[in-house]
Amino acid sequence: MPTLVVGASQIDYILRRSLSAKRARITVTPTEIEVVVPTWATEDDIAAALHRRREWLALQRREMTARVAAMPKIGHFVTGAKIPYRGRRARLTVEQTDTSVVEVTYRNGFYVACPSSLSEASRDPLIETALRLWFRRQVRKDVTAFVRKHGAENGLSPRSIQIKDQKHFWGSCGADRIVNLNWHLIFAPKTVLEYAVVHEICHLRHRTHDPAFWGLVGSILPDWEVRKRWLERNEHLLAIERLSPE
Known about the structure:
This protein is α/β, with parallel strands linked by helices. The protein contains six helices and 14 strands.
């Protein structure tokens, strides 16, 4: 993995060449730094682009380190653990039952029915998998409801809806009229998920973020700016970091 040296710090990054890129693009997330450059870019071009952004990169890495430290962390999926859900943390209750599979329900907190036959070593990963599946199903249900609520009356009906684990985006809408939403939005307040849905279906009419686009968003959600700011300021909270066992 290539490395950029900034003062006494070494910053690792992933380098990718793209046929569609017209200039260097740098994306910083809590887990990695990705540098995308045109296919024709030389090593000197890449070095120059990184040198121009070196101070910004160092600042972004410090901020991302702080964000990772604030990310919800779970050591074990046991009774009393706190699970992020819709902008807050819900209590988890795990009960051993005679069921044959792990079952998740939500009643002012998460309840997990766990087969008593499971070994302690296999319990955590199976509960985590069941919770993630539940989250994805709930996001799909919520997204479908929001599309039904706002889409038809505004002439914004996607061809289909896909719930994905997107790397750098909360949502997208292609020319094929397929709307993609990131399932991690389940960790945001429901109003923020609604904003993400409205944002993407508005791209069915306006492909770019021009004034007409934002005008359409505002006609549907007058307080869209408040919801957008919440997402920008709290995106690092929209995940569960699984702590490795000691």
